[in-house]
Amino acid sequence: MIVTTTMERLQVLMRLCSALAIATLVALSTPVLAQSEPASATFEQLVNEVAQGSLSKRVDTVAAIAALKHERSADILQALQDGNLKVTRDDSERVVIETADNQILDAQTSEPITGTDLGRLKRIPIHNKLRSQLHTLLAQLNLSHPNDEVRLSAVTRLITDGGDEQTATLLNELKSDEQNSRVREAMDTAIALYQLESENATERLAAVKQLRGSLIPEVRGPLQERADYDSDKDVRIEAQRALDSIEGRLKMFRLGENVFFGLSLGSVFLLSAIGLAITFGVMGVINMAHGELMMIGAYTTWVIQQVFPNQIEYSLFMAIPAAFVVAGLVGIAIERGVIQFLYGRPLETLLATFGISLILQQAARSIFSPLNRAVSLPEWMSGSLQINPAFSITFNRLYILLFGLMVFFALLAILKKTSLGLKVRAVSQNRPMARAVGVRASWVDALTFGLGSGIAGIAGVALSQLTNVGPNLGQAYIIDSFMVVVFGGVGNLWGTLVGAMGLGIVNKFLEPYAGAVLAKVLILVLLILFIQKKPKGLFPQKGRAAAD
Amino acid sequence: MLTQRLLTSDKGGMLVLGILALTCILVPILNLAVPESSPLHVSTFTVTLLGKFLCYALLALALDLIWGYAGILSLGHGAFFALGGYAMGMYLMRQIGDRGKYGDPLLPDFMVFLNWQELPWYWHGFDMFWFAALMIIVVPGLLAWVFGWLAFRSRVTGVYFAIITQALTYALMLAFFRNEMGFGGNNGLTDFKDILGFSITADSTRIGLFLASGIALMVAYLACRYIVTSRAGRVIVSIRDAESRTRFSGYQVESYKLWLFVFSAVLAGIAGALYVPQVGIINPGEFSPLNSIELVVWVATGGRGTLYGAIVGAFSVNYGKTIFTTFYPEAWLFPLGLLFVLVTLVLPKGLVGLLGRFTRRKASKASEEDTP
């Protein structure tokens, strides 16, 4: 009996408190810090009072802290809710916050306390009623927080957890003053979700209309319920329509996502094929060790991260030139050591470079062990760009896409604008004539091959951000790269770009229907058929250069 | 008359054939008749190993026929080998009957494991040997015909042909790795019990398979020899050396190439079919592009364009591989890669060419001594 009365009293008190809190919140809904300044004297007192008295008194104190709308009110309540708000066991009864990494902060000032030994700390206890009060108060506090992101996440939480009438009214009040369109949209959704349960059919209808086209996943369940079971026919029809429109938009964004994934895969193809486009396309050398040059670039990234373990953030900027140089030098060594003796004998070149690829693979296996090595992702590469609830883009894929295009255009510029590029083109078009006018053809060959190999190394750096680094890294890409070059047209860089992106997108669109492996098989078959139709690729070379 | 045409001016070939015939006679005797304690005894392990090499040699012969004589480098010949092997494997699977782990009289173990209810249509008929034997020839041949028809018709040659054949075997490997294909997925076909009613592990069966491989190799050698010494063979060589000129002389270049390619694929399929019962397993790894390219190096090492060079190459490289992997099991790729580079740079005519140069120098020296 006694228990129930206490509980009832608590409930009454709770309601009073939240009503009070809401009233204050509404009054102060324009968040101006200056307004809360004069009250900050009492903020400190209230923080100290949290630790004192009975649980029911704590309910009042908490409500008062929330009502103050002090800039740190939310922190204190959050800490209390998480059980991080603690009190020293000595007479001073200082209230402190213990953070997740065991740092002790003064609750009043949030300054870290160092030096003084506080002795053992006691957690300030809360009970279920207080916890749910804290939950509501925190949501409400955050709803009028000056920071847009905090407000948005508070509204999102309301959408997932569902709100009550009070929050709905509160949201209605806050909405009119909301400046940020994303927050306002989320608030509309939250209110509409609440109104979906309304007794009034017109209100439900309005809510359904409001929710039309919303991409937030929590919306679909309640809407489906309305569409299936609502007593009002109009609401049912309208809810079904809203669902259809949501489905349509989702389909569109899924399409967008597929295109993005396709482009991302295409950028990997592009990076791996672009070096090949030079060695194979421009020089006509079949380099089966191309994949292993990529592997060398990827291992370079790993080694650099091992040498500078504290500079992971910048490691990629070091790795890109390093990989270019290392892979380029290996490439020049291959050209001088083997390929220069085999010009004009493509099949022999293919076999010899295949032998080199086997040696390089085995070397990687012997030096770095056959196990895969994980290259860590710098902070700025991880995470994703959330465009809306149905469509997000991971940063590493986005950057690699941009990086691939950058490398592509840089290479295009080198070939079109520099003297090396001029010589490369001259030698590839007419070797004896180029030699006759004083181009050192064999030297240009070595540099061209080095350039192509260096770009393969850079591709390896990018790949190391997507997959694990192992001795077989290159093998997985060599056939795809050749396909891209052949598909796009040998000797044509633009063809390589279109070919890579096209193959990437086709691959991603086939995957949902056929599965990843079968998609790959289908692509290979399609390509073989394509080569039947256009043996010189999408963009065949025209004119004298085409005749070999 | 025919023997004269096939064997005169083919000293190397005669020598290799002689050694092969001798091996086929001696090895069974030394294995079955000589007691195990005797130093002359040949263990069953060695018999199986030699049988494997014979199959490799047959495969190398098939590749040399098209690469050495028609100049078509196929980097996907392992695919035909594996297809022949799978056809044989399917027959051997059906022979297991209800002796599998799950004891299903009709379905092979892996299908029971995948919860399949009935035999896929393409598994029917493989319980009969004649049908399986037909498929060993038809499946690789048909694939080669379709693929070759498409490729040669649109004049895909040289390096492009090499790359698309590699893509072909790669695609097949990916496809056969899938469980849904119904060929045992990753694990392939294995646990064979018997062939034509003989237990597959018995010594006598091993000898039988060894003999079959040896005879197949010799017959195939003579058949290849027949082709390359015929009129058509000369047209094929002229296609290799000057394709356009041959075409302008009125020969149907495409059909010569196509039929040679199909014949070569059939030989590879037969090699695969003989290989599978001896090693006791066939899995998608056989489709791996690396296998096909290793095959190319056998031929290159032996000496392309001589037929018997391919046999010499297959035996020497594989023997070297067996020896090497016993001591350094991990590092086989080093010598293999080095072999690729060295053969192409230093020994474009292979071991056979090296021997030929040696004997020719001796002969010319002898004639110099005679003249004064």
UniProtKB/TrEMBL annotation, chain B:
* Subcellular location field: Cell inner membrane
The keyword Transmembrane belongs to this UniProt entry's keyword annotation: yes
How does this protein lie in the membrane?
Multi-pass membrane protein
For this UniProt entry, which segments traverse the membrane? 12-34, 40-59, 66-88, 128-152, 159-177, 207-228, 258-276, 332-355
Keyword terms: Cell membrane, Membrane, Transmembrane, Transmembrane helix
InterPro entries membership:
ABC_transp_permease (IPR001851), ABC_transptr_urea_perm_UrtC (IPR017778), LivM-like (IPR043428)
Domain of life of the organism encoding this protein: Bacteria
Q: Which residues form a coiled coil?
A: none
Q: Name one Pfam family in it.
A: BPD_transp_2
Alphabetized NCBIfam families for the sequence: urea_trans_UrtC
Annotated protein name in UniProt: Urea ABC transporter permease subunit UrtC
Instruction: Tell me the organism.
Output: Gilvimarinus algae
The gene behind this protein is urtC
